[in-house]
Amino acid sequence: MFRRRRGAAETVAAAPPETEPASPVRESGPWDADEGFPTAERVDLGGLLLPIGAGFEVQLQVAGDQIIGALVLVEESALQVHAFAAPKRSGIWDEVRAELTREVGVAGGTVTEQEGPFGVELAAKVPQQPGESPQPVRYLGIDGPRWFLRAVVSGRAAIDPAAAEMLENVIKDIVVVRGEEPMAPKEAIALRLPAEARQAMEQEPEPEYYNPFERGPEITEIR
């Protein structure tokens, strides 16, 4: 269900189906917006076209006034995705993976590299709060053309292959819209609310709940 945050209701609406593009060269994504990708029902977040499915709840993560990521919740699992700019001729997953390994270690967790559906990934156990037992988390990274997609899988999908497959399929169907503007490596690719959501905010600024779908999004602020 949609929850209002920060004094106004924000919604995420499904983007209109894309026109049928040329057949993709690869069998699965994540896709680049400039290549052929399969038509699907996706939420248009500007820098990301995010697949949605029955029973999904989508939350947008906000830092200040900027939307920086999306969180997909389904059953007992969660998928967090962020897109970043990357150099034209090289990926950054090796570097980011090393940084994540150090950060998890500083937090008192453990990390093991393993092979996953997108290549090398990190299987970690990370304390959520001081004194709590570490929780399993998977860190996945995909280098694309001038972009990098980071995905974090937690909850049941971090340890259950059947639950993980559902979220892995979401990652495989994401479309990254990098844009042509110059960006520094690791700079977040800007996300935005869809036009339908912005229009709903202008027309209905005060209702406590707005529920255009059975499961809606919420805005989560990160400080």
From TrEMBL:
InterPro entries to which the protein is assigned, alphabetical: DUF3710
Pfam families for the chain: DUF3710 (PF12502)
Region (Disordered) location: 1-33, 198-223
Comp. bias (Low complexity): 9-22
Protein name: DUF3710 domain-containing protein
Species annotation: Acrocarpospora corrugata
